[in-house]
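Q: Convert this sequence to structure tokens.
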Amino acid sequence: MGKVVLVTGAARQLGGRFVRRILRDPQVDRVVAVDAVAPGHPLGGADFVRADIRQPTIARVLAEHSVDTVVHLDVTGTPLGSGGRATLKETNVIGTMQLLGACQKSPTVKRLVVKSSTNVYGSAPRDPAVFTETTPPKSLPSGGFAKDTVEVEGYVRGFARRRPDVAVCVLRFANILGPAADSPLAEYFSLPVLPTVFGYDPRLQFVHEDDVVEVLRIASHDPARGTLNSGTFNIAGDGVLLLSQCARRLGRPTVPVLLPAVTWLGSALRTLGMTDFSPEQLRLLTHGRMVATHQMRETLGYVPEFTTAETFAEFARSRGPGLLSPEAVAEAVDRIAALPVLRGGRPAPDRSATAPVPGTAAARTPKPSAQGPTIPTQSPT
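A:
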């Protein structure tokens, strides 16, 4: 008998993709896809069960299908359909409690995989440069999806203590992007003009949808030789991008807004339904966040196919050109940076000259100056 995998959140694009992918694994005998609403995409040969994980009926689903692996993907920051923030929080927190309670009573469940987020670390001005899986946050999230993930992980740790025989894997994903991304950050980057916080240029990390699906698949099976897929792992593509770099690669102009006015602007955007500019997203776009991924590589044994920059490039291509071409934006930035007022009154360097060859007299001997030493002169070609 192969594995019987239950997947929550199957009506979302990511859940549907994972269901179709895990069905192709020869170790899997059957997949049970669960959601409160019927999916608008195909689920392959999976058995769809319309059930709300906030209700105790989820325990009956586990028992009827003799589920041995549970992949909990119904922890998200974007409402499905007409549901608001209150419904979303109930699904994230109350739904997770009900699901864990059902798993605790089930004698067949042997593995639990939970989709979490690097939002658990928060975003604060005194954060460390890089978060590891064991780094405590300087400031716990006070609301929104970030607080939901903190509570969800707390319940999962309690479940792991009560059922030590169940292998538990928590995957903290960075901001998920790709052609089909439907996260609040994807909505923000889709705006024609990007509001930013004046004086801040945060570091951002992304993970591609394809890598998300593959990591979930690895976590759903028994670990390969020399790896361990039980525990908590940060999942992100290599490298980081500054928010200003993201804007230039999208070809979208930015509008720096003073920090006190950003909250008002976020409320206006939410009222217009353009994007969920929540306080947690505001903190991310102010202070940024970067996580270490060596445990993902060394322990889990997974190397992402896409870097942060490649993930964002895929997302940018799916969104089409912005108001400005990336080349025009880059040229304008170079011209502004060369202005004497931004260079302390110093003239821009002569780009028509090349650097001196190392080891030559021109490279070793600077010209004398009455005002002290200067930068070595460059010899024209």
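The chain has 13 helices and 13 strands.
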